[in-house]
Design a protein that fits this description.
20 strands; about 475 residues; about 20% strand; alpha/beta; 7-stranded mixed beta sheet; globular
């Protein structure tokens, strides 16, 4: 049993920024189920959107965010994002994080549904890795923050209606342990691996959302899953994200006949469904075409994408690039206020795990990294304020005996999620998913004995919740197509 003041689950950008905000205000323990650098944040390619350009301002960024979100963005949350975003980016620069520059000035590019060139990037197409590197370095050099990798959280612990920590499995011993904390932050990232087709790393199994669901926290907007239009589609190869910034720099989408069939800079949901329907109508496969772009510019701007595609036999400067839509980002999650508070006392959430309403029904490109920074910082402030109140006694607990869990065929669940809770949903398919997974959710309470079992349980729980939400919303809106 471990005791701490502040517990953070996850080492993506939201969790790391929160840890830095909490430093000096009690002991901070950060648990992550894999190596510390393994997160959706690390793999982010395109950039971070922020109104820092000479022709830009937060009001324009706000308007674009509201427009992309298909009418249900929380205006207060979006205003916080765009108005506090510039300060968070200046903070990163002061901490030594290096954004790409041209002629000594920060270089901005443009992505779909943005009215200005406001996307900052790093190392061409490795923004997430650069920000994560800088934050991790700072966290690991800060006294009072303890980061423990390969610790898989399995369930939140509640006492008298308050979250007081979590249970977790430590890989080295594969034994259940308990950590008790005065405040707990879920920053476990997204749920791309609920689906068979995704570019998310394998750690993205919706863990925080599933734990919150089982603990009784309110969830919201789980029907809004963003499917990225363009992942490299080669037989037998894992899907690799080809950033939207490629289309922002002028790449075309062509069907098998060589025809352009959509506005490449339309919102992601529209582009993804346009590709889906080309394939459905037999006009696929679909390709990205960069052959008309300056080859030197492509090499400088997209070195990681170029190298990865080359390693798989595709030279993006000379050949058409076969692409397909894939699950990419979850707009919904654990419902929070503007300071990361959930519906359960003692529990906060930030980043892709959380839902402030800032993305509405369709996230504006490159708003996610900014969201992690802004709301990770805000959650830390609220957690500090909580500590300043009346001291709470830490409950003593004995670990409960582990019961045998239900064996879940996780790959079949992921295939069914892709087919029935994917780009286009139908009532019959959604009901069949719910009927299949309800008995699993109604199983006797049990604790997983290893990471694979924990992830399988989380995938099943999140898939069930997504299907329930998608069945309830009968209209088509944003990323949700009925």
């Amino acid at each position: 049993m471990i005791q701490t003041d502040h517990l953070i689950l996850g080492t993506g950008i939201a969790g790391l920024r929160a840890a830095l905000g909490l430093a000096g205000h009690g002991r901070v323990l950060v648990l992550t189920k894999d190596q510390v650098s393994e997160s959706n944040s690390t793999y982010a390619q395109g950039g971070v959107a922020v109104a820092l350009g000479e022709d830009d301002d937060p009001a324009l960024h706000l308007a674009d965010t509201l427009s992309a979100g298909a009418g249900i963005v929380s205006r207060p949350a979006a205003r916080v994002l765009v108005e506090e975003g510039p300060e968070r980016i200046r903070e990163l620069i002061a901490w030594g994080i290096r954004f790409d520059r041209e002629a000594g000035r920060m270089h901005f590019t443009r992505e779909a549904a943005h009215s200005r060139r406001r996307i900052l990037h790093a190392h061409g197409d490795a923004i997430g890795g650069e920000i994560t590197r800088g934050l991790l370095s700072r966290v690991q050099g800060t006294a009072g923050i303890d980061v423990r990798p390969f610790c898989c959280a399995t369930d939140l612990i509640a006492r008298e209606g308050r979250i007081v920590g979590c249970r977790f499995l430590e890989h080295a011993e594969n034994a259940e342990k308990i950590v008790l904390a005065r405040t707990t932050l879920l920053a476990t990232g997204g749920a791309g691996h609920v689906f068979a087709e995704t570019t998310n790393p394998t750690v993205a199994t919706g863990d925080g959302i599933a734990m919150a669901l089982r603990a009784g926290a309110a969830l919201v907007d789980l029907e809004f899953v963003q499917f990225h239009p363009t992942a490299l589609a080669l037989p037998g190869e894992p899907r690799f994200l080809v950033s939207e910034a490629v289309r922002g720099e002028g790449a075309y989408l062509r069907n098998a006949a060589g025809e352009r069939f959509t506005d490449e800079l339309a919102p992601r949901d529209q582009v993804a469904r346009a590709i889906f329907r080309e394939n459905l109508a037999g006009r696929g496969p679909v390709f990205l075409d960069l052959r008309h772009l300056d080859r030197k510019r492509v090499r400088v701007r997209f070195p990681h994408i170029l190298a990865t595609c080359l390693s798989r036999g595709v030279d993006i400067t000379h050949a058409l690039v076969p692409v397909t839509p894939v699950a990419h980002y979850l707009m919904g999650g654990v419902a929070t206020d503007l300071h990361g508070r959930t519906s359960l006392p003692g529990l906060w959430a930030a980043g892709e795990t959380a839902c402030t309403g800032v993305h509405g029904a369709n996230r504006l490109a490159s708003n996610s990294l900014l969201e992690g920074l802004v709301f990770g910082a805000r959650a830390a402030e609220a957690m500090i304020a909580e500590m300043a109140g009346e001291p709470r006694a830490m409950p003593f607990m004995q670990p409960a005996a582990t019961a045998a869990g239900v064996v879940i065929d996780v790959e079949s669940v992921r295939r069914e999620a892709w087919e029935k809770v994917g780009l286009e949903r139908h009532a019959l398919g959604l009901r069949s998913v719910i009927e299949r997974l309800t008995p699993i959710r109604d199983r006797p309470e049990s604790a997983p004995t290893d990471r694979a079992a924990a992830e399988a349980r989380n995938v099943a729980d999140v898939t069930w919740a997504m299907a329930v939400c998608a069945l309830f919303r009968e209209e088509s809106r944003g990323a949700h197509a009925r």
